[in-house]
Amino acid sequence: MTTSTEAAPATAFAVTAWRDHDRSVCRVAGMELGLLEVPSGPVVDGADALFAAGARRVALPRPVDLTGATDPAWDVRALSLVGALTGLAVAVDWQARIADAPEAWVPLGHLHPPRTLSGPPDAEGALRNWRDSFYLCKCAYRQGPGFLQVRDRRRGQLRRFTIDDPGYRRAIATLADGAPAASVPPAVLADLLQEELAIEVGDHVWWAPYQVRRWPMAALVI
């Protein structure tokens, strides 16, 4: 008997999209794009297709459960979509369920804040802190020739990681849309988890930084 560590084929799912970031504007006739499909390929391609279709606000079809209690394979893919859309400066309507620790939201604080949050003892306070502290590029990466650089400000101070080891870069590529934890070498995974560059969702793991493709300011400032 053999055990496969490869991720199961991703399934497509539909999101609701609008042409503007502002919820009040989205209620105007003609602003809703309706249901658009996120195909089964790379999530970043799906996000690009949504943006090209005119989507500037996107609503996920169901809550994202980071406790691992429901469907980790879908949840990490949904997180990847939230990250890819955040990197395009697209607003995301989503609901998040996280662990019951007071600061469980902090490793996710670089993502567009969810509409609702459950899990922490003071979920409303945690969501308020998330919204108040959110800004684009809070934890982002960029590609260079043979390396990848992450800039992470989720904990309040700038941390920079330059990753050029081929084994780590392969692991990051594997985790880009989320993957089973067993699909990444344990030592590499332990390092990524320790630095909060990867996040566990049940038996799956997700690469947390997103690639910014719409800069909110001059690139040299970032």
What does it look like?
It is a single chain. The chain contains six helices and 14 strands. With 222 residues, the protein is of the alpha/beta class. It has one domain (13-211). A four-stranded mixed beta sheet has the order 2-1-3-5, with helices on one face. The protein has a four-stranded mixed beta sheet with strand order 10-9-8-14. α2 crosses α3. It is globular, with a radius of gyration of 17 Å. The mean pLDDT is 92. InterPro entries: DUF5825.
What is the N-to-C order of secondary-structure elements (H for helix, E for strand)? EHEHEEHEEEHEEEHEHEEE
Number of DSSP E strands = 14
- Average pLDDT over all residues: 92
Structural class by SSE content: alpha/beta
Using only C-alpha atoms, the radius of gyration works out to: 17 Å
Strand content range: 25-35%
- Alpha carbon gap, first and last residue: 50 Å
How many H/I helical runs? 6
Tally of distinct domains: 1
Given the C-alpha coordinates, what overall shape results? globular
| Largest sheet strand order | 2-1-3-5
The main sheet comes to:
4 strands, mixed
Spans of at least 5 consecutive residues with low confidence:
none
Helix content: 25-40%
